[in-house]
Each structure stands twice: as C-alpha cells, then as structure tokens.
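Hello Y.,

Per our agreement to keep a running log of every chain we model this quarter, I'm adding this entry. I've kept the format consistent with earlier entries: sequence first, then predicted structure.
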Amino acid sequence: MKNPLPRVAAIHDICGYGRCSLTVVIPILSTMGFEVCPLPTAVLSTHTLFPNFVIMDMTDELPKIIRHWQEMDLKFDAIYSGFLGSARQVDIVCDFIRSFQGPDTLVVVDPVMADHGKLYPTMVPEMVGEMKKLSRISRVITPNLTEAAFMLGRVTPEVISEKEAKEWLKNLTDLGPEMAVITSAPLVSRSNAATVIGYDRVDERFWITDRPFVPAQYHGTGDIFASVLTGSLLQGDSLPVAMDRSAQFVATTIRATFGYRERTLGHHHEVLLERALNTLTTPVKNTTYELLS
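Predicted structure for the entry above:
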C-alpha cells in the first residue's frame, strides 16, 4: 500500500540540548508534510560548541537498524544525510542509499564537517575524502563555504568573487551531484548580505539569493537551511525557489531570535525555531532569487 505521506530517511545525529541536526530536521520536514524516519548517527548531550559534550557513536548500531528496515521493505521518497559520527559511517550510508534509492528518490547530502575555516572537534581529516565519496552518489549537496573549500582542496577565503563562486560550484558538481548549493558564501559584491549560491549542471544555470546580514552567529542554521531545501525540492519546487524559501526561513528564525536579550535566552547558541515553523505552511510568494550571469 502506498504511504499517504512522502517518507524521508534522515541520517543525522541527535543532540539532547541545542536546536540542530534531528531536533530541527524532524519538526521542519514534519511541518512541511513529510514522514521522517530518523537514522541516528550519533547521540550527543549538546552540540559541539558546548564544552565537555558527551557523544555516543552509533556506527555499530546502524547496520542493525538498516537490516530491520530492509526486512520491513521500507520505501523512501528522499534520503537526506548530515553529520556522521565516524568515517566508517560513510560506507554504511553509501550502501544504505544504494539499497533504498529508487528511480525518483531525492538524495541530499549536507557534508557537515567544518565551519569558520576548520573541521569540527569530532572530525578527522579522513572525513573530507569520505564526504566526497558520499557526494558522488547524491543528487544535491549543501556545503557551507568552509566545507566546500575542504572538498575542493582550497583555503577558506574571507570573501569570494562571483567568478570564483561559479568555478567552485562547477567543481563541486564535477564530484558527482547534479546540484550544488554553497551557504554562508560572503561575496565581494554583496558584503552586507548573507548569501547563498547554487548551480544546476543539467541546465547549466547559476542562482543566487541573499538576505540582509544580522550581526549574530547561531548554531544549527545550516541544518535548518538544508532541511527546508530538501522539503521544498520534494514538494516539487525548482532549485532557485527551494534556495529562496530556505534562506527566507533561516532569516525568519534568526530575526525571531535576535531581538531577545541574551540573558533572557540563557544559552544563546541557537535560533528559536518554534517561533517560525508555521511559516513553512504558507504558499510560495515574494521570491527574490536571481540568475547569476
């Protein structure tokens, strides 16, 4: 019997405290009308910006969960991966994609491993090559600028020109995916904006969308962006519309948070996602994406 809701396999970690990974993936995709089946790659007490966080690697448990799903003959409309708990998990996730991917399955890889020019504390250098391997069998990848630099063997620049950004996007799709989207891309020509750039190698078009810069840093916004992008593409939106919806939602969550005093929020490390979830159910309107010529 056909599942009444499109089903997404979400391969991410889960943090007990801190809005990121599965604690944002599940509510976002559920609000957008999808059944989310989480496949946890690690269990953390908090996200990795907090000191002394506790992490439980789920590498040895993943094959057991996957075998059970295979026995149940589960079908997925999308497979969406993010933070992986170990380099060994890449081969497990690759096998998962090959086993569960159908002709129309959307495969999105968010190569979560780095930011601000360096790898996250739990990541080893080997993970860069492993993420490239995973990207080869995806349809869409969504690295931030630092992750894109690592994947291409570049140094993370403070700013990037439109010409360089287009070269980077083409090089990322040369790794295998049909579409590449770079988040947190500080363009020289748009220095006072939070910019996202994307490329679809099938029609060879580049897209850009941006929002006014807010002077604050929040953890988990990359997970939020990639989750909305995945849901938007699964709903049938084009790449530029999906990019624009995702950037708009991230901007909305940031602005819903920024106005609060830090002492009111306590640990001021993530956005107030719940304040903005209802906006994901509204029709697409007022898109501001541009074709990057």
